[in-house]
Prior knowledge:
Strands 5-4-3-6-7 form a five-stranded mixed beta sheet, with helices on both faces. Helix 2 (28-62) packs antiparallel against helix 6 (171-211) and helix 5 (134-161) runs antiparallel to helix 6. With 379 residues, it is α/β, with parallel strands linked by helices. The two termini are 41 Å apart. It is elongated, with a radius of gyration of 44 Å. Helix content is 62%, strand content 7%. It has two domains: 23-211, no CATH class; 240-377, secretion proteins EscU (name from scop, 3-Layer(aba) Sandwich), CATH 3.40.1690.10. The longest helix is centred in the middle third of the chain and has 41 residues, at 171-211. Keywords: Cell projection, Cilium, Flagellum, Membrane, Transmembrane, Transmembrane helix. The chain crosses the membrane at residues 29-47, 83-111, 144-165, 185-203. Pfam families: Bac_export_2. This is Flagellar biosynthesis protein FlhB.
Amino acid sequence: MSGEKTEKPTAKKNKENRKEGKVPRSQDVGAWAALLLFAGTIPKLVGHEIGVLKDLMATCLSAAGEADIALALELLGRGLMHVLLALLLLGVGVMLVSVAGALAQGGFFLATKSLKPKLSKINPLAGFKRMFGMRLLWDGAKMLIKSGLVALLVWMSIKAMLPYVGGMVPMAAVIDGFKDNALGMIRNVALVGVVLAVADYGFQRHKTGKQTKMSKEDIKQEHKQSEGDPLLKGAIRSRQLAMARNRMMADIPTADVVLVNPTHFAVALKYDAEKGAPRVVARGAGVIAQTIREKANDAEVPLVRDVPLARALYHSTTVGQEIPVELFGAVAQVLAFVISRRTKGQRGGEHKSPRIDAPLPEISRPGRRNPSDHATAGR
């Protein structure tokens, strides 16, 4: 069925979907990735800061014998600076990872259309479907899986730390054991969270892909809107052809000669020694050729009957183009005849070709026909 949505969205549709916020995205990717970064960097960061604080503490103890407010404030400032710097580095790192996780799922975009008020957003039926649809089932299953795995990892960590409790274990070993187990637990939880977040992103991508599919009829309508209405384009094209034909007809009085077939083709030529070879100012076949002949008669432009030359010029030139080099000799004979009559004060009329009846040379590179001429010629 044409209404069935089975086709991938087009580039234009994808752009509209981004404006509407229909982009696959999981909110958990950035959060879990940031937690993983925290678990990986906190040991080194804390170790470095503990060393700095030990040095600072030793400095404070050595300065205790000489009570000085300025020195106390300086040491306090140094301590606060180290703490703030550590927190700042950790916060910036977490923020960058969170932003990178969001950008990796579709880049930066502004869902401007989703901000506009819509009646469908307050539709109780649509709200009921959102509450009890597939999304709710997936969120519930995801929450149960996350809770179960996190509880399992926490229990494993607590179980591993039980030997340190109530035994004759040195305090330093207890602290190190608790630290290693706690950091390992955080790291494992973060890894599980990242895996679940990737799975959630896959689900969101699949769901969004189904929601944004298009039917063949949708693609046809979009193509029609992009390309424009065929009827309107046809009307514009017809108007352009009419304007081009009118300009061509207006240039016929400036021509030196019109070569005719005598009824099928007509090609009007104008020769200007300063501009080089003769140029075509008008050409046509059928009804257009008849109109060219009538305009030429009204403007007293001579008509010369030369079947092969008129046909060759029609098929090898367009309006405004110079005649082919191969036809220079043949056209020169016709122009010489027309100019000699003009010097005697003779204008207009229809004449036989003064050209010697010899085959025309083959045209090696015929010019392209103008589509407007082709269209008008068939009218």
